[in-house]
Amino acid sequence: MRRPYIYPHRSLRFVPIPATRVIVGVAAAVVLCAVTAFRGTDLLVAHARLCGLLLRLAGIPVEGTQTIGVFGGLGPVDVPVTPVLTYEGHLLEAAVLLISSVLLLVVVYRYISLARNFVLCLLTLVVASALVIFFNPSFQISSPLFTKIWLRGEILIWLLLPWVSTFLFVPVHSTALGAVLWALGMQAYAYLWSAVRLTFCLGVAYYTGTLFLLLLWFSLGVLADLLYILVFYSVVVHQACGRWGRRASWQY
After folding, report:
1. Distances 10 to 52, 133, 195 between C-alpha atoms, Å
2. Average pLDDT over residues 4-25
3. From 65's CA, which of 129, 170, 173, 174 has a CA 20 to 30 Å away?
């Protein structure tokens, strides 16, 4: 028989959130946000150097650097310049790349039902890029321009990330110090992972041109930022379960 009542279980409704933990979390968010804002140029310079190092390690030729301004008050920053494949006079290569990518996405659409909406979005981006190339084969996005677009999006993520960390980690983690350490870890990961993703995008542009840049900017940009935020949050929740106690199971 089902018992007449359910024993109280641990959930966010029953997790105590002391005011001191909230104050420490907010203070850490303010400090991280201020450091990112006032030392933003130094962070972007380090980001560009790491990206240049990764490009050289990957065998992508670096033709020098170009100075760009990201936002007012941020910059100038010397970013690596890499060649980008041009399709002018090579429309056949572009057609082969387009057909191959479309076929691959169609296969994914056919066999992975959960990814169908996402695949349709990617197909739209690839076809839109292909139409631009078809009507204007000389159109090209240089690596400094793509880097500038990339960094403008990432610096906003870095400024918002401390507040997202506070909102996600402070209510769940059992200690203020633990929540702050996880926030610091995710902030550092955001800087490093951004450079790796940008390096990959520039490498793809070197070998395949601008056909996939719009797709990469969408899938490896803000979408990838959201993904690692969810991963960090999942790990913190998993850790917190061991500290707060597991939810009582239903018994009949």
Report:
1. 48, 56, 39
2. 65
3. 129
